[in-house]
Predict the structure of Monocarboxylate transporter 12-like isoform X2.
Amino acid sequence: MQEDDEHTKLPVTEDDVDTEELPPLVAPPDGGWGWVIVFASFMCNVVVDGIIFSFGVFLTELTTTFNESKSKVAWIGSINAGTYLIVGPLVSALANTYGCRPVIIMGSIIAAIGFVLSAFATDIVFLFVTYGILGGTGFGFIFLPAIVTVGFYFERKRSFATGIAVCGSGIGTFLFAPVTRLLIDSFGWRGTMLILAGISLHCIAFGFLFRPLGPPKPNPRSKSRQKPLLLRIKEAREALHRCDSEESVAIDDNLIDRKNGVGRISTSQRSSIVGNTSASTCASGSTLQVAGFNVPNQTTSFVSPTCSHGSLPPPYNEVVNDDIASYLNNNSLKVPRQPSLEKIAVLRNQQNNNRRLSKINKEEALRPFYRQDILFSASLIRLPEFRSQPDIEHYHFSIIRIPEHNEETENSIWRRCGCSPAMIDTFRQMLDFSLLFRPTFLVLAISGFLTMIGFFVPFMYLVDRAGMNGIPPEKGAFILSVIGITNTVGRLFSGWVCDRPEVKTLVINNTALVVGGVCTVLNPLLNTYSLLLAYAAIFGFSIACFAALRSVITAEILGVEKLTNAFGLLLLFQGLASFIGAPLAGMFYDITGSYDASFYIAGSVIALSGIMCVPLPFISRWENSREEKRQGLMSSNSFSNPHSVGKQTANDSATCV
């Protein structure tokens, strides 16, 4: 007991800050039922994106039925697409509170109701509400939870699994464009709406497949095989004493107990010496490596009966398990090092974090949006946060952020309206308006806004433009199918890229947007069926890179800790752009009687969105450098008073529980 008291008086060192054993958290299976989740997510994307991107097939029919301009009819599809994106924060809050399965089932029912009501529409405004708002809301409820659940089931194979799931978007466009044309020819647009309602209800069956991960179960078999810790320590020490009683070890005078004056090692030193002994022998004339020193063995040629071929027993670290060795080494006599105050603060903060993580509520940790990387669709090896952790368990704990439910949360207006704490926390994460003051985020947001202004223009008007050039409606619908085919190829290519950390995803995104934008600007010059097919192939590949790499670029530029925050605001920017993009292009058609100006503007803003992201790495480095200088100034002021170190550390650890 006295020896332990002496250790507690030693200065704080890096070795004194132990990493406590972390409690088990649910680990993504990276297979098993996860592949069923991938299939269900794939089918949900087939239905949702297939219907959304095929709305252009309805354009001529609705214009004729209601005798309205194409720009006004385009509002129906634009409201549908915009709502599908804007409801993202709401859907995230519901999924974090109730789980992804009930949210997907609810979305299927809402979308089906919207399409059934659309079949009985009497005017365009009626379709704004039924097809646009109800259909878009239902699809938003399906899309986001379907992608999030894949990320919850996969970690090492996340990029591959997510790539398969999102390929449903391209396959859906490939299938639904000609199928919708065929259904309209056979049953009319009202009958087609009823059939689309029935197809949407299939997502209920797919939703039931989204089985939530449960908390980890203890493995009693592994516990029964392993002896208790104290028993293993006792057996290891008995083996050590048996060898010591038969051997005589002489070492340098500065390591000898000077009080006794004989070649015996003190008890407090023995564990440290043996714990660091390697390549040792019992024969005379050999060398012992003790506590980092080469010490000659000065015993006579005596071979211990307990040693094989005159060698000492295995090192202490091999006799016991790693956890015992770590325990003994941490409690052995060491020469303390004096780190800086900054190092002490970091070490103490790490220890406080381990203690905090050991108290994490396992049920809370299963909420998807408490994982900071849940929206990251690429290989985790791209994340510095993943590479900096010693193992996967520590990484799991490092990315979990469970907000503290304080009095302010309980008294907020959202709580009074019946929102759960988990729902309020998700809203706060995804609507973090402080990001609007960061130049890096503003560039990303404006770039995404410009991209989405031109994104839906080809989907909305390419079929009608082909018809104006004498191309039959069936062939015009197949042009959209080509976009779906190359969109699938582009998403697979993006998944392959994401598995290679050396590849610059931002460069690929910028190049794809510029190429897709330039081709869209040149679209008015393409008046033959074969040239329009070529344009569709290039455009489909380009937008696939944008859609697949967006979350990866956001995480690499802003950090994975800001991914969820940025994703919510980016959905708002892109949703607003989707609202106005296609109607704006339709307005230019109504004015000029041609789609030339519409495609000129759409292609220009898409290309501009890629060009403006070129200086993004330089802006990010400048912003990070400015933040580091600010933090360094605050740190120097803080460490000028040693008492502020512990206080600051305590405050930091209290911000995230």
